[in-house]
Amino acid sequence: MAVAGKHFVDKHRVQLIQRVSNIAPILDELQDKEVIDQEQYDKIRALPTSQDRMRELYSGPLKASAACKDVFYESLLANEKFLVEDLSKK
Prior knowledge:
Elements: E1 2-3, E2 6-7, H1 8-11, H2 13-19, H3 23-32, H4 38-45, H5 50-59, H6 61-64, H7 66-79, H8 81-88
Antiparallel strand pairs: 1-2
Domain CARD: 1-90
Pfam family, one: CARD
Keywords: Cytoplasm, Immunity, Inflammatory response, Innate immunity
């Protein structure tokens, strides 16, 4: 998942913030795998746009560790497969 020393979710941060639209199931998985807790989940879900939700994820849970990024990446593969494939080509 690391590309040239940089994790996929870091390397493609801007594109992911702009292009991930199917955020609800990703948040569900992150909560289920204990990357985010109920409070973070509720706070992120309350934000008005997908971009705001993605920015909040990046400013909090995705800063925590590579393991959190790995869970996020796996969820992206499951829920935003074509986006991940598109970004992987870049």
